[in-house]
Write a structure and sequence with these properties.
With 159 residues, the protein is an alpha+beta fold. The chain has helices at residues 3-91, 109-123, and strands at 99-102, 105-108, 132-137, 142-147, 150-158. The chain is built from 2 helices and 5 strands, in the order αββαβββ. The strands form 2 sheets. The chain has a 3-stranded antiparallel sheet, covered by helices on one side. A two-stranded antiparallel ribbon has the order 1-2.
Length: 159
């Protein structure tokens, strides 16, 4: 082998050795980068999981607060409705009864009103009665009535 060939062969061996070293260094760097990327991805995954868990916890708190508020509104509404119902019951007129006593007779005001209404409706079948006023004259043993603001001497019932 000639000295040039020997030198060329040695140079080739050195170049191959250097290339292997470079390849090894690049491989190590690539492996380090891959490991670093993997660690970063895992950290990001963990952080994402923590953020998601926190958001879920906060969401549950918001839902609970909203549910509690809705419950309070419902309770207050029910309480207010009961107050209105109680007030409405108090505002309704009590059950009443009026009895007219004259010369040993007892006449119920309700029966006089019912009788006057019945007699009027019988004579005026297609008329709607909005108002009915009754005037009792016990000394004449008669009750006169006015229907819808209109009266007549014929609008009377005998007691």
């Amino acid at each position: 082998m000639t000295p040039v060939k020997k030198t060329a062969k040695k140079a080739e061996e050195v170049i191959v050795e250097e290339a292997k070293k470079e390849e090894s260094a690049v491989t190590k760097t690539a492996k380090k980068a891959a490991a670093s990327t993997k660690k970063t991805a895992e950290k990001a995954k963990e952080e994402t999981k923590k953020v998601a868990e926190k958001a879920e916890t906060e969401g549950k708190k918001v839902v609970k607060k909203a549910t509690d508020a809705a419950g309070k509104v419902k309770a207050e509404t029910t309480k207010a409705a009961k107050k209105v119902t109680t007030a409405a019951k108090k505002a309704v007129a009590p059950t009443t009864s009026v009895t007219i006593e004259y010369q040993g007779r007892q006449l119920s005001a309700t029966s006089i009103v019912d009788q006057a209404l019945s007699v009027y409706k019988e004579a005026h079948k297609n008329t709607i009665v909005d108002t009915l006023e009754v005037y009792v004259k016990p000394e004449e043993n008669v009750a006169y009535y006015v229907v819808n603001g209109e009266g007549s001497d014929d609008f009377k019932i005998f007691l």
